[in-house]
Design goal:
InterPro entries: Transposase_22
Order of helices and strands: EEHHHHEHEEHEHEEEEH
Number of helices: 8
Shape: elongated
CATH superfamily of one domain: L1 transposable element, RRM domain
Helix content: 40-55%
Radius of gyration: 60 Å
Distance between the termini: 137 Å
CATH architecture of one domain: 2-Layer Sandwich
Largest sheet: 4 strands, antiparallel
Strand order of the largest sheet: 4-5-3-6
Length: 330
């Protein structure tokens, strides 16, 4: 870069105490010719160095503060930035339009798909499958409930068959804990003395529950011969006029059967007229010439439909059939 030794333009900027105006960057012109008239060459050179040093101090580091660009360069740069910004905006706007078109196309396809026959058929199929599945689940629940109830009835029937040869004696005196042999001897002696029945072989006889002083535990007896059990139960009514305190004999049933018989007895006590008698035969009630049973659906006592024979004969037949079945099983 060439240097004009005759004229130096020194930009010293605007300062607070400067007397120049801020509209023209305050240029200071040094005319070399006027200085030459009064200064020697060494003095002129010293003045130039002083001005350059003063300029460097005012300007700072040239690399970090190169000074302002020319106005046309600044305008060119601004135009380039504006053009670049316009291009970027146009590109973004174009992409947004493409995205909107894509979304619109997707919505259109979804709408067409929803309105298509295949989707309608699919919805119908799904609804049908859902209904079938619900119906199948209900059927499975009903089957499971019926199967559970059937299994419960089978287990209850087996339990009652196991207890068929059993009798329960209540009220037999007990002064101290008994062994099974002592209890068996007590039963044999009691039946022989009070009912005039010679009991055959007893399979098992024992008290129910834990012994406590001052209490009388019931005795459960299992006979080997069903006829012995039937004869004792048939003559049990004789004990009413023989013993005081009273000793009574009952059949041994499963917990479910005991609950049914209790409901039948409660119904009989609430329904029968004064002086009327009733009889509970297995899970049936004979009252006033009619047979009643417990309805498993309503859990209420209802009369059995008549079968053309008097209810008393039905009850006796039912009792005889029960005895005959037990005898055959033995």
């Amino acid at each position: 870069m060439g240097v004009d030794l005759c004229t130096y333009r020194i930009r010293v900027g605007c300062f607070v105490r400067a007397g120049c105006s801020t509209r023209n960057d305050c240029p200071v012109w040094l005319q070399a010719e006027s200085l030459t008239r009064h200064l020697s060459t060494g003095a002129r050179f010293s003045l130039v160095l002083f001005c350059l040093a003063h300029l460097l101090v005012c300007a700072g580091d040239v690399e970090t503060n190169p000074g302002p660009e020319k106005l046309d360069q600044v305008l060119t740069l601004v135009k380039e930035l504006i053009t670049s910004n316009h291009k970027f905006q146009e590109e973004v706007s174009g992409r947004l339009k493409d995205l909107q078109l894509s979304v619109t196309d997707i919505k259109r396809r979804l709408s067409e798909l929803e309105q298509s026959d295949s989707v309608r058929d699919l919805r119908v199929d799904v609804s049908s499958v859902s209904s079938l599945l619900k119906e199948s689940c209900d059927q499975l629940r009903n089957i499971d409930s019926r199967q559970t109830q059937r299994s419960s009835l089978v287990v209850d029937d087996l339990d009652n068959r196991i207890r068929r040869n059993n009798l329960i004696f209540k009220g037999l005196p007990e002064t101290s804990p008994e062994t099974w042999a002592e209890t068996e001897e007590t039963i044999t002696k009691f039946v022989s003395e009070n009912l005039d029945i010679d009991v055959g072989e007893i399979e098992r006889a024992h008290r129910i529950g834990e012994w406590k002083e001052g209490t009388v535990r019931p005795v459960v007896v299992k006979f080997l011969n069903f006829k012995d059990k039937h004869n004792i139960l048939k003559n049990a009514s004789k004990l009413k006029d023989v013993l005081a305190p009273r000793v009574w004999i009952e059949e041994d049933f499963s917990p479910r059967m005991q609950l049914i018989r209790k409901q039948l007895r409660d119904f009989a006590h609430a329904t029968k007229q004064p002086g009327e008698k009733y009889k509970v035969i297995s899970d049936k009630l004979l009252l006033n010439g009619r047979l009643y049973h417990l309805d498993p659906v309503t859990n209420g006592v209802v009369p059995l439909p008549r079968r053309g024979t008097p209810a008393t004969e039905q009850g006796e037949t039912l009792l005889e059939e029960s005895s005959a079945t037990a005898a055959k099983e033995k």
